[in-house]
Amino acid sequence: MENDGQTPSAHVYATGIGTSDLDTIRLLGHDLAGELLGRTSFGELAFWLVAKRRPTPAESRLFEAVLVALADHGFTPTAIAARMTYYSAPDSLQGALAAGLLGGGSRFLGVTEDTGAFLAEALRAAAEAPKTVPTLSDDDARWDDLAREAVRERRAAGRFVPGLGHPVHKKGDPRTPVILAIAEEEGLRGPHLRLFEAIGRIAPEVLGRTLPLNGAGVCGAALADLGFRPEILRGFALLARTAGLLGHLAEEMEQPIAPDVYYSVDRNARYTGPGTD
After folding, report:
1. For 72-101, b where at least 16 C-beta lie within 10 A, e where not — what string?
2. Looking at residue 25, what DSSP letter applies?
3. Domain total for the chain?
4. Is 78 within 8 Å of 241 (Cβ atoms)?
5. Which of 224, 202, 228, 205 has the alpha carbon at shortest distance from 213?
6. pLDDT tens across 172-186, in order?
7. Does residue 262 sit within a domain?
8. Contacts with 147 (C-beta within 8 Å, 6 or more apart), sequence order
9. Are residues 27 and 79 in the same domain?
10. 94 and 165 share a domain?
11. Within this chain, do residues 34 and 50 fall inside the same structural domain, yes or no?
12. How do residues 188-228 score in pLDDT, each as one tens digit?
């Protein structure tokens, strides 16, 4: 017999997120209306939903600082994609948001995950050789040794070191020292952040040029020190950027730039295919 949507199924689908019935909504084991509304911030809830534990005040401060740091960075490709999609399909706000989020990759936003994964792998490799594992009480020199080894291996493999360099902030990303300072103040400057800082110190020696530690990278290191697995870190970057994209779309409704972008590209397009001199 086909289930009518009201008759309970014989199957059980386990979840630790939330459920609802006729009178209540339960979220993370709490009454949403009676216990969480007005008492839990959105950032705290986002942490809680993923970690399945409520963050401490210190963790909440660092976590929300990361979300704010990743929310917007001006007319990035993700913001332009969202605005252009809205211009093309103003009846699909969700499509415009999705278009912006789909651009989160190795150059924008995805760096948060890539950096966290790189640092976690370097720390795992060090753990397999106990003599080389620094502790949080060790001085910078031991962390520099680990960073030097990790960066050299990355370079030998012909791969970029994630978290280094920025297309705009050539001399230093203003977000990086603030995130580091908050982590230090809250006692959350863990091994991923220590290693990330060390990479910044030794990079000129190994790579032959000075590259700043970028904001997306330091956010990845901070999230990893908060206990999140590398595979989920890009999700937090996308969560933060959703707020920025929504702001761009709200502005696009009032002060559109997408038509000018479209016309500028269209009117300056030049055919260079077969048949041209």
Report:
1. bbeebebbbbbbbbbbeeeeebeebbebbb
2. E
3. 2
4. yes
5. 202
6. 789 999 999 999 999
7. no
8. 122, 195, 198, 199, 201, 202
9. no
10. yes
11. no
12. 999 999 999 999 999 989 888 888 999 999 999 999 999 99
